[in-house]
Structure formats: structure tokens, C-alpha cells
Amino acid sequence: MSYEIPEEQIAEDFAAALADLSMNSRYEISNLTLIARENTASALVISEALKTHIKQTSPSKKLPAFYVLDSIIKNVGTPYTLFFGRQLYSTFMESYALVDNNVRSKMVEMLKTWKEPVPGSMDTRPVFPPEVTRPIENALIKARTSFLQAHQEQTRNQQSAMGRGRAQSTPYRETPTPPSNYRPPTQSAQPAPGYTANYTPQQYPASMNVQQYSSQQAPAPQPPYTTQLPPNGQQYPSQQNGYQPHGLPPRPPNQQYPQALPNSSSWQQQRYPTPPQPSYQSQVQAVGYTAPASSLAALNSDIENLINETKAEWSRNPHEVNFQPKIKALLDLQTVLRSQTLPPDQISLIQNQVDQLKQAPQSAPIMQAAPAPLPPTPVVAPPPVQQPTLSSLLGPGALAALLARQSATPQPSSAVPATIRSPPQNNSHPFQPPSSVAPATTPVPDPASLLGRLRAAGMLPGLAASTAPTPLNSSTSVAPPPFLNTPPSAARTPLATIPNDVILKPASLKIPRPHLIASLYEQLGAPCTQCGRRFQSDQEGKKKKAAHMDWHFHVRQRMDEAESRGQHRSWYVDELDWIRSREVEGESGTTTADSSQSSNSAAAAKNPKLQFIPAPDDPALAAVPCPICQEKFEMKWLDEAQEFVWMDAKKVGDRIYHASCFAEATKDVNTKAKRGTPEPVLGKRKAEDDGFAFRAKIKSEPVA
Amino acid sequence: MSIPGLGQAAPTAAFLAPIPVAPTVVHDLQANSEWRFEVDIGEKIDVKILSGTAEIFGTELAVNHLYTFRGAKSSIYTWHGCRIEVTGVCEEYTAEETPMTQYVNTHFALEKLRDEAERDRREGPRVLVVGPTNSGKTSLVKLLAAYALRMGQQPMVINTDSREGLLSIPGSLTATPFASIIDVEQGWGSSPTSTSTPVPVKLPLCYYYGLGNPEDNTKLYKPIITRLALAATSRLTDDPAIKSTGMIIDTPGVISQGKGGFDLISHIVSEFSVNTILVIGSERLHSEMLRRFSTYRTSTGETITLVKLDKSGGCVDRDDTFMQLTNEATVKEYFFGDTRTTLSPHTQSLGYDEVTVYKIREAHTNSFLPGGVEETDHGLYEKVEPNASMQHCILAVMYASVSDSQDTIRDASVMGFVYVAEVDETKRRLKVLAPMNTRMTDRPMIWGSWPEVAVSLMG
Description:
Chain A is mainly α. Chain A contains 32 helices and 7 strands. Chain B is globular.
């Protein structure tokens, strides 16, 4: 094989061919794939060329380029998988941020296929190893979560009012015209791409979902959903099973990428709230299921019904407090069932309980009869600001807000606040299981604690701890001792309650005590898949785990960023600083993040300089200067918020001010009496400086 | 390696390296057994736990995560049995007989003390680990710290062994609170850098002794220990999480081997208010400790619990060459980072007149002086002008001012280390490698003889 000269040549040719690729042309893509296959010796340069192309090409050409990548990794595989895998996160996310929603959903579909084995291949490993895809998923989840956060705020109050009325209608979140249930494809054409993103990913999953829908909607079985593809495509995922090993992502003609960039207004419209969300959910389902589908599907539909009935009940008696925990427990149970592999006996156990439960509410009027009499209130159609723009999608300090909320809300699970607070869209929507929010913060909800809550809510009788189901993690290991990854059924057992008779005497130290070893393993909860650290399954443990996973996520991201920047070791801390420093949370990374987040919000309350808002996407809006000082805002990337922000900015009404300017101005108005006290110079200059220091502190995060 | 087009091989490290394909072996370990391995310096192995549970010195390993070990003598223990996949060449064997039961029970006994301490709002146990060189002291310290961490505690780990560094380069003595998982691949982990690391960084407080053996200059070693204990105790008292967990103190093997050393142990015991002493291996040491401490009361009136623990059969002698290479690797890592994080140190050129360098006097050079009264006059350090013999040496930059007295400088903590890359006698300039680009001319620097760096780091 010749390596030297042709390598550059190949890269050049490849890049040139790529440059011509402006649409999803099967011929061109297979041609490029062929080139890649025939030149595996030059895989590095080829993959570099493709990566560069993806990064540099215009948004409209990004998707075809990704399809080339997809085709190469699926048809050629190693070593390309390796080379692309290295920077897949940045390649993917950078493009994701730039393309429109339609393309985004395509990208998400594609990502999903990367987590599965190559169709038709003997190899059971996923296309990309999970270490590569997981960060991307996390980022997408984060984006979705932050959107939901923003969205929930406004819809929460509508909960009880909307609960019943919208029970049957599809959650047409941002659109003022609620479509009817399960609208035929023709209808879906009207709201266009946004809708698809919400709709299609639910189509392909196995019988379970279908059954779930049908059992809900009508006794008569629905035709398979795959036949109801909306005209704008999305066949890629639905063809999963029939995917030919060497085939390219097939796309119907009308799926060709729009050549012209959408203008500003259509852009806004297209940005449908949570494109990644549904697909993620379905991924989880698709991946998580190995149990017998039939009984599971039945169980799922039963639970789904129960949830709906309970909700209907609740909406009739909004003051009845018992419903909330009940619904929550059911929703969580549903999540567990969907995202995890439970042993069959466990499933049948749950089935029995669910069956019993079904008896009780049966007498109540079935909500199916009520065809959404309540029109959606204006609140559901949010003001233009709340249009899910890129910024709201990624959310200002979404993570911070989420974490802060968790600590502030006495909810038993991090998943719950999200679900409970957003019922209008979620609870009532059969397509979109409300608990789908759960993976965002607690990727693996712990079944044991769920069952515990079900029990607490009086929905399940006490079960022996030994029947606690095995969480997802165990399915990844080859043959773990069954009890090892089983989280404790109750909250953490303090060591004091475990018989610990060890004393520091030679004889005592020599006696093996297996029950104590357990307190280093299974009693600590399930391990993190990245580093093996274990987390309790109780509320606090979940919170910690969520923060921990965030930490892993941030670290990967920062390391990627830092690679190009050049890094150095820091000086050791001074004696006094060291004595004063604290390892608050257990992970210096998390610690600083947490403390800076809390100090951020706390400081932001007092200190206008630390306030920030997401930079507006609308160029017109972005060009408007601060009405007080007439200076423009400076856009900065804020690690913590994971997006571009305007530091020292504050939105008052429709206008955006420098927070410090605003504080200054209002102070003049509000505290004229106190003006005697000379205010330290709080000029904008100073504000900027401090703002910078603040950012610098975030950057130099590891110093705890 | 898989054939292109057939399947997607997981990115194995073997692919990255152009060397011949490393052999992959799968070991099935019985419950309660230990897989011990030695990887030569410059070599590496990849280890993956396929199923079961496994731990390295108390830190649990994640299943299906690839761990890479370079130039290490280490072991993987399993309480429940596991299956591991090893890629690469190493000396290895599986041992059924280990002192792990003893060790883990020690942890639980300490845990009981910690529970009591928390209840009574007292300080948790201060544990001193003593034993001859290569008896597994540091491994036990690491194990106990890791177990404590797993139970949600925050142990403070003190290193009084200047022969090896803990989160710092050799020659230094450190105190480090551990609140996050110990890095199983890098010994203990990393001190802070300007970026993030895959394992959370630890924040050591660092003092500089600068010699390999504490007995070389006890007049320097003892006050530094006192200072270290003072700082660590202050932190302990202030920091509730650490307070109930207490300290775990690692010691140099050499002080467990002779009369002069025992005095140093007594010094450490009193400075840190040690109330638990774990003696590894040596019968004689145990009886000597009993003799010294059976009637001893700590400053708070506590008695000292003394336990003898078995030495692990896995302890291997690390010869001088291995230590030398390990130390050089540690120094390199300080400046340049490890394989996962590349650090870029700054090169600075300093004039002879801009730096203040103190060379440590070694005790035996003093002892030759007639009368010995001059020792205090001469001080601990000798102020020297840079010279050619300084090349390839490590200087400790102190948190002190050049105008400070020698005692103040001795008691100061270390800001960082610089490496003298080049000495230009004619131009009277030094070229030094510093972790970051900060002016250091107003800081005194201490020149010790440990660690010895034989080769140029710049090559």
C-alpha cells in the first residue's frame, strides 16, 4: 500500500467531492463511501477532511455530509469509527446548534442508529461506543430539559384546569390550534416540521407502544403507525429493521433539505420546542426492552390507562391531595418499565398489582368520553418571547435552575418536579409519556424506590426486598452476581444499624464479615457507569447522581475545549486558603459547579453584575443597545449555562438593560432618601471587570 | 483488529499504537482473590472489568470501563468474583491469600470510631500507618481512604514520606482532604490544573523537605512536620466533614527501622495527636511501639490503640532504579501532565540576581563541624548563587518573601516547583521550567537534593 503522496491527494479529492455534495444524493454518498472503503489506509486524513467539511460547510449542506459519515461508519466501520468517534461530540453538537429543526430531528434519528448495532451485521456492538454517543445524548437531554424548565413555568398554573380538558387532545404545545387525536397524516402536514419531530419517533417502536395507543384510544386496534408516516418523511428511523447494511439513509423526495435558509419568521416557527425529546424517549424504550414484549405491552397499556383514569379523577377532584403521589408513582413506574429490563417475575408481580388497581377506578366515568371540551387557554400559546428559540432550548442556567429547584422542592424524585409541573402538555398526552422527562436528570430511575413510593401511596402491598428489580446497569455486565447491583429497597442503612462488632484487636480483625462488605457495595446503591462511584437510590442520592453525571458531562466537554487552548498545572494553594477551603459536595468538580451556581443565583439576586440572560437569537433584538447607557451588549459563552449569554443583563418588560445600569437607575428612584451614603463606584466598567472575573472563576473550575 | 467493513471494533488502545497487536487475556477471578500485576516503566496494559465487582486499593472499578496502567505494580481485588480482560504485557498472577479481611475490618472498626466521633462532635480517628519499606503502607493508607470515601466520609490523607510524593513531587510533605474518588490509574490523582480532569482533582497543601530520608536532617524534618500538623489540625477542626472522619497518615519506611526513626514516629504521633497506630508486618516494630505508646496519652487524654496487621504477600520490592524512574515520571507529570491531559509549562529566563536560592544543609555536613554549636548560626539553609551544579534540579518556590527569615521560609507552604533546565554561567542566567507564567523573583526558592533528576526533562 502506498501511504505518502496519495494520502494528501485522496484527502483533497475527497474534500472536493464533499464540497459538491449539496443534497442527499444516494449516488454521491455511496461513491464517497466507496472511496473511503478503498482507502482505509488513509482513513485518518479522510475522516479529518469530512470532519472539517461538516464543520465548515453551510448549514444546508451539513445533513448530507452527516449522511456520508453515517454511511462510512456503518458500511466501512473501523478505523473510521475510531477517528470520527474522537470528536464526534463537537462535530455533532456544533452542527446541531446551527441547523434548523427539521435537520435536527434527522440528526437525532441518526444518532439513535449509532447507538445500535449496524443493521444486518453479526456484530452486536453499537455503531459508536456508548462513551462516544452518551455525551451527545446528554447534551440533547440537557437542551430539552432546559426548554421544559422554561415551558413549565408558564403552564404549571393551568394544571388542574387543563388536566381534564386536554386529556384527550394531543399536546399541541405551542400551536394555538389543537389538532384532534392522532390526526391522519394529512393534518400533520399543516404544522409541519415541528410536529413531525414530536410525532414520528414514536412510530417505530415495537408493538408495545402501538398497543398502548390503541388500548387508550379505542378498543379497535389501530393500524401500525408506520403506515401513517406524515408526508415529510422520517422514514429513516422507521425502517430500522429493514435497514440494509450498505444502504444509505433513504429519504423520500420531499425530504430533501430546503435549499434556501428559512427566513427569520419561518425559522421561529420551525423551532419546535423539544425535538430531541421524543426520540430520546423512544431510544430508551428501544434499547431497554428485552423482556417479553407482549406482557410488557399489556402492562404498559394498563398503567397508561390507570394514569389517565387517575388524572381524570384528579381533575374532577382537584383538591384531593392523594392523587399527586399516586400519579407520580404510576408515572415513575411507567418510566421504569419503559427504560429498564425487569425480570419476568417482577413484571408479573407488578401486573398483578396493576390488575387489582384497575378494578377500583373502573366504576368511575371513563374520561375517554370527554372530547376536550376546554379550549386551550392563552397561556398555552406562549408569548412570542417564549417561542422556543435556540436560547430557550438550551436554556439560561438550565442546569442550575434544575438543580436549584430540586433542592428547593421537597419532591421525592428529581424526575417528578418536571412531570408534575407540566401536566397540560405531558400528563394528558398519551403519545408522550409524562415521565419521559425523567432520563434528563435521573437516567436510571431506581425501581426499588419507585415501588417503595407505590407502596407508600397505598398502591402496592409491601414486597419482600429480595424481589427488588435489577436496574439497567446490570444488563450491561456479562454476569454480575445478581444482588450486587441491586439497590437497597429502603433508604440508606446507616452503618450504626448494621451489626458492626469490629474492634481494633487482632482476633476481631481476622473474622470475615460479608454483611459488612455489603455496605461497600450493594448498600451504597448502583454504580456510576463511568467511574464506579455508587449512589443511593433515595432522593438525595438521585440528586447527587444527577449532579455527578453533569460533572462527567462538563469534564468531557471542558477537556475537549481545553485541548486546543493549552493547559498548565496550577500553583498549590496557600496555607490559609487551604485551611479555609472546603470540599463541599464530594467532587471538587461538582462542588465548584454547585457552589458557583448557588452563589451565582444568590449573588445574582444581590449583585446585578452577575445576572445574565441568554443572548437573543433575533438579530434585530440583538442589535438593540441598553436603553440606559446606549451601549451594546456583549455576548459571551457561559459554561455554566451552556450557551451564549449577555452578562450583566436583565430583562425588564420587553426591554433588556444592563443589570448594573438598571440597578443604578432604579436605586436612584427607590432610595433617594438614602443617597447620603456614597455608593462605591458601580460603573459599568467595574461591572464588566467583575463579570469577567466571575467567568474566569468558572473557567478555572477545578480549584475547589 | 477487525477487518474493515466487518463490525465496529471498540476503539482499543492497541489500534492507536503502531506496535504489534497486544495480546488480550480474560481472567476469571474467584471471590476474595487478588490479581497482582507489574507493568514495566514505559509499558502499559489495558484492563476492563467485564462483570462482577473489582477494586484497586479500595476504589471500585466501573464495569466495562477501560483502565490503563503504565509502569505500575498494583493489584485488583474482588470480594465477589469478577471477570477481567487484560490487553498488554505484564507480569501477573492471582493470589488467594490476602490480608484484605483484616484490612477491611480495620476500616469498619475505624468507621465505628468515626460514627462515635460524629455523634459526640469530636475529631475522628487519627490513624498512623507504620512499617518497614515496601510493606504496603501507602497501599493500606490508600485502601482505608478509599473505603472511607465510599462510605461518604472525607478522610484527610497526610504524607510524611518525602521519598515519594502524594499529589506532588517527591521531597514534599502534603496534607490532602479526599472528597472525591481516588484515581486508580494515576496513583492518587492530580493536583489542580487549568482544565478539568476525568477524575476530580485533589487539593494538597504542600511543604518541602527536599531530602529523601527524614533522618538526614531531623532539624528540618521535625519543624516541617509540626507545621504540617498545625495546618492539618486547623483544617480538621474547622471542616466538619473531615473532622469526624479524621486523618490517615502515611510514613516513610525508614523511620520504622531504627532508633532515630522511632523518635520521629513519636514526634509525628504527638504533633498529629495520633490515637490509632497500625503496624504492618514487623513484630519488632510492634513491640517497640507498644513499649513507647502503651501508656501514652494524646493531648486530649486519649489512649493509643495499637494494632499489628499482616503484610500483604503482594508487596514487592521496588528497587532504586524503579523508584528513580517513578520519581522522574512524577516530576514529568507535574510539569507536562499525564497521558490524558497534556500540560504546557512555561520556560522562563531568570538572571542570577533575580533569584533567591537557599540550599538545604544536610545534617551530616553539619556534624563534621567542630563543636557543633555553629549549627544554629549557619541556619538550615545556605543562601547560594546559582551555579552549574543546579542544572536538572528541582527548586521549590515558597509562599514567602525573599526578605523573610529562614524559619519563616521553612514553615511556608510550597507554591509550586520549577525545574532548572539550563544554567548559563557566562551570561549569568537560568532557564527554568515553571508550571505557569508567573513572576517568581520575589519568592525564595529552596534547593534540595531530592528528588534527583538524572535526565533532562526537556528532551
